[in-house]
Specification:
Helix content is 72%, strand content 0%. The protein is mainly alpha-helical.
Length: 160
Amino acid sequence: MTSTESITPIVSAVLSSDFLLAAKDGFLQSQSARTVAWVLGLLVVMGTAWGASAISGSIRRKERAKQSSKKSKPKDVFDEICSAHGLSPEEKRQLLGGAAVLDLVSPALLFVDSGLLNQLATSDREDAGEFRKLADRLFPPDAAPSEADLADLTETPTVV
């Protein structure tokens, strides 16, 4: 006889309705036994709710972590723009230093507003000449403005 064959009659006896009814009638006759049964039942329900809450919270945290890792960070955008312009690591360090001096939210703003680089190029800093070279390289003085820039310049601002 295998171990599962020897357990089968015991399990079927425990799960039979006669056994459960006999246990119910004998066990829950006193008030204290009923109270204990209610408390145990509530503990099981609360434990199940707590476990489900913990699992769903863990799943939500993992999803949020995945979403936040997909968002571009200002430093990532800066690195992409530097690569697109073919800047050397020294030029990148110089721009990062300039962004720190200007207290910019993102160093990538140096690529958007030529006035920021011009500020650094005309400052009393010892590396102002290097910033002038970068400004001329990134924003050539003889370059014609794009159609979008011209449209921005000719638009009249609307006052709300």
